[in-house]
Amino acid sequence: MFFVEVAPVFSEFALHERLLKAVAELKFVEPTPVQAAAIPLALQGRDLRVTAQTGSGKT
């Protein structure tokens, strides 16, 4: 299991400008806990297997 420092808002992730714009247009500001933990690892090119309760915001 990996623990990472959580980015409080999507704009603090090193995401492509077009993706950040789309997220902002959808009015998403803060990632869910599972997104905050997974996104930095995915950006490092890591393979992920993420489990979380239904409705917790995995997508």
Automatic annotation (TrEMBL):
The DEAD-box RNA helicase Q domain extends over 8-36
GO CC field: cytosol
Q: Which organism is it from?
A: Pseudomonas syringae pv. coryli
Checking InterPro entries in the record gives: DEAD/DEAH_box_helicase_dom (IPR011545), DEAD_box_RNA_helicase (IPR050079), P-loop_NTPase (IPR027417), RNA_helicase_DEAD_Q_motif (IPR014014)
Protein name per the record: DNA/RNA helicase, superfamily II
Motif Q motif extends across 8-36
Q: Where is the signal peptide?
A: none
This protein's source sits in the domain of life called Bacteria
Q: Which GO terms describe its molecular function?
A: ATP binding; hydrolase activity; nucleic acid binding; RNA helicase activity
Keyword DNA-binding recorded: no
**Is the Metal-binding keyword given for this protein?**
no
Key words, A-Z:
ATP-binding, Helicase, Hydrolase, Nucleotide-binding
